[in-house]
Amino acid sequence: VFSWGIEAIVAAIAIKTALIWPVSVAMTVRLLDCPVWTYIRSFAAPAVATAGMTAILLALPQAPGAAHIALQIVVGACVYALLLVALCRARLAEVARLMLTNPEGAT
């Protein structure tokens, strides 16, 4: 039996992820043949959308029981999607175009 609890397990996973992430970035930029900062900048819009969603969720009034969780899921998903569309509409349109013109994913 693990006596430290779920918090220790989650912390260990977070630490492992943070330690391995630079290796993942290095491998990804090598495969994509792009500069590191170009790759990292691609996370800016999702990070801003996440921050906006978090701010809205923290401002939500408390609802009883499962209603609060359901409200958070619905509101969070809507806010995140709207912010993501507002922040990177062109990139999403390009992804949609690529998926529609080549549904199998082959190049």
What do you see in this structure?
It is a single chain. The chain is mainly α and 107 residues long. It has five helices and no strands. The chain has helices at residues 6-32, 36-41, 44-59, 66-87, 89-101. α3 (44-59) runs antiparallel to α4. The protein is flat, with a radius of gyration of 19 Å. The N and C termini lie far apart (50 Å).
- The helicity comes to over 70%
- The low-confidence runs, each spanning 5 or more residues with pLDDT under 50, are none
Distance between the termini: 50 Å
Q: How many H/I helices?
A: 5
Structural category = mainly alpha
Q: What string gives the helices and strands in order?
A: HHHHH
Number of E strands: 0
Beta-strand proportion = under 5%
Shape category: flat
Question: Quick gist of this model?
Answer:
This protein has 107 residues and is an all-alpha fold. The chain has helices spanning 6-32, 36-41, 44-59, 66-87, 89-101.
Topology at a glance:
Layout: H1 6-32, H2 36-41, H3 44-59, H4 66-87, H5 89-101
Helix pairs in contact: 3-4
